[in-house]
Amino acid sequence: MDKLKKVMCDIFNIRDDEITDDVSMHNTEAWDSLKHIQLIVSIEETYGIKLTGDEVVSMVNMNKIKNVLKEYGLEK
Amino acid sequence: MFEKDLNNITFNELIKLVDSFKQNDNNHLPVKIAFLRNITIDHVVTYLKYLCYKENIAVSAYMGDYDNIMQLAMDGNSYIYQKSFDIISICLKLETLSERLVVQFSSLSPSEITEECKCIIDFVDKIISEIRKHTTASIILHNFEIPVYPSFGILDYQDNYKQVNTVRRINRDLLDIVSKYESTFILDVDLLQATVGYLNFIDNRFWHIGKAPYTKEAYIIIAKEYLKFLLSLKGKNRKCLILDCDNTLWGGVIGEDGINNIKLGITYPGSAYREFQQTILNLYNRGIMLAICSKNNESDVIEVIETHPYMVLRGEHFVSMKINWKDKATNLKELSDELNIGMDSMVFIDDSDFEVQLVRKLLPEINTFQLPGEPSLYKDLLNSIGFFDTLVFSKEDSKRSKMYKAEMNRKKAMAEFQVANLEDYYRYLKMEIYIKTADDFSIPRIAQLTQRTNQFNLTTKRYSEAEIQDMTKLKDTDVLYLHLKDRFGDSGIVGLAILKYNGKGAYIDTFLLSCRVIGRHVEDVLLNACINTAINRGCERIIGFYKPTKKNGQVENFFIIHNFLTVDENKNGTKSVLHLKNSNHFKFPDFFNSIRVNNKSCH
């Protein structure tokens, strides 16, 4: 999940060790809808994928993001 | 920092980079844009900031609250009127304005359609009219994207009143509205959508999730379009295109292949080069100056230009040709001096890696573009360069190349003419000066002069057409322009003075001269006209300001030379005064053929 961690660090300006499974839209002040768009675009760019609308709205915390990426076979 | 072009930098890298730009970089020209919108467009601003930074423009943007357009426009106390924005941008998605017209079109009756269109047009007209009550800032209005999957499918576009053509008609009506107001422009997002394709332009997921309809590609192309507007509004559009010859204007190398074997004609690849030349000619007709910079024997190139049957461009189209074996950086510098234009007004195109890298390194102010390997791609590379775009196209522009050529002739005549002294030469020029109060026809050129003139400019105040228009209506302000003709041709409007009156004082708000006519005492005549105008108004003194900039050092002592007294000097500039009651006026030099101020002869 190194690629994903780097994306999160870059977007939310947090350290590697601050990224836990419960980092979410609800508990991260900087994570508003504009940042969410940036997050999705960045993930799509990084992994070369195109997510569905459902996936986009579901990926509001680390856990759910990891799950979606696992579905694509991109992370374990 | 800017080595990565927009297609190679990741979204995150770009955002971080833009966030790191310093807010108050003194070298950068600040531009403030307020966005009135019913969509989310923050990332257009991100890309725009990046593109502008490369051109030494610092953009700051204010996002009006989502879908609060009319409220912000009508409220005289709203933020958009507090902070003197340069541009107010109106970004509307048709679907938000009228869901019926976009999503439910097939259920509407013809009268409902007409009614809906009228509502939209009236809404936009009202917004702009409200904005104009409060500010002369430029307004940029986005038009509407045509639905690419229209309501009735293939039947839809057979009919002038079904969906596709209804939206086209609305867009034309928007243009009619915009032309009623000063300094108000359309930004054609429909054209931008067509350029990249709807499927690459719209991201329907983000539209539903965050009312953010655009893809990254859309952000880039919209930002690039905004850049063209900003460059034009700030007088930073470029005026001169310099071209290489071999593998640029024709396929092959003239020195090696000979005139019969270069590729230029009606079959591929010659037809692609011919098409490229036609695109260049289009720029010439828009008032862009063309020049050549080629490493060749001069006679070889001239032979092609003058005699090759498939050349579109001929000798008359080029203001100058540097065809020699010197390095191109030296040649380009010489061109800049010869034409008296800054390198930040030049664009250079070459096919060679070596030449392009050289010029980019040594002369970074010039915008240098490298042609792609495939000649059929040349014309669109040139078309996509937005640096020549201008919002003001005056008569002067279409004649610009002719005027520069006339200037070259003047210089040649000066060198050849047997003069006892310069005054004889000036007399020989038979200069005619016409100084007039600004009228509707002259306003575009006047605004353009304030935006572009950097050297002979005492206060460097930049004005839009709307602002000049307003000034001409004020009773306490005079806007005077100077029109010059001589034996070689008509130079057009080349000087401007704006006088503002307060009590017994006349203040010179603006005093400038186009760089083309420096060195002929034309400025003396204009100043004298200002003094006389002030006297006629009953003023007792006339006050001049000099605000120093990087480019206007040559006019530092202009007022002093004309017998003004310096009364205040600080880091912002110098203020000087000429008392009118008992001063000795500067006499008009006698080498002018005629001088007319508002149609009265003064000679």
At a glance:
The complex is a heterodimer of chains A (76) and B (603). With 76 residues, chain A is mostly helical. Chain A is built from 4 helices and no strands.
> H/E series of chain A, N to C?
HHHH
Number of helices, where a helix is a run of at least 4 consecutive DSSP H or I residues of chain A: 4
Rg over CA atoms of chain A: 11 Å
Structural class of chain B: alpha/beta
Number of strands of chain A: 0
> What form of chain A results from the Cα inertia axes?
globular
Query: What is the gyration radius of chain B calculated from CA atoms?
Result: 27 Å
Strand share of the residues of chain A? under 5%
Distance between the termini of chain A: 8 Å
Strand runs of chain B, count = 19
Structural class of chain A: mainly alpha
Shape of chain B: globular
Strand order within the widest beta sheet of chain B: 16-17-15-14-13-12-11-18-19
User: Helix proportion of residues of chain B, in percent?
Assistant: 40-55%
> Biggest interface, and residues per chain?
A-B, 18 and 17 residues
C-alpha termini separation of chain B? 59 Å
- Quaternary arrangement of the chains shown? heterodimer
Helix content of chain A: 55-70%
What percentage of the residues of chain B does DSSP assign to strands (E)? 15-25%
Average pLDDT of chain B works out at 91
Explain this structure:
The complex is a heterodimer of chains A (76) and B (603). Chain A has 4 helices and no strands. Chain A has helices at 2-12, 33-47, 53-58, 62-71. In chain A, helix 1 packs antiparallel against helix 2 (33-47). The longest helix of chain A is centred in the middle third of the chain and has 15 residues, at 33-47. The mean pLDDT of chain A is 87. With 603 residues, chain B is of the alpha/beta class. Chain B is built from 25 helices and 19 strands. In chain B, helix 2 packs across helix 12 (216-233), helix 7 packs parallel to helix 8 (163-178) and helix 9 crosses helix 12. Classes of the chains: A mainly alpha (76), B alpha/beta (603).
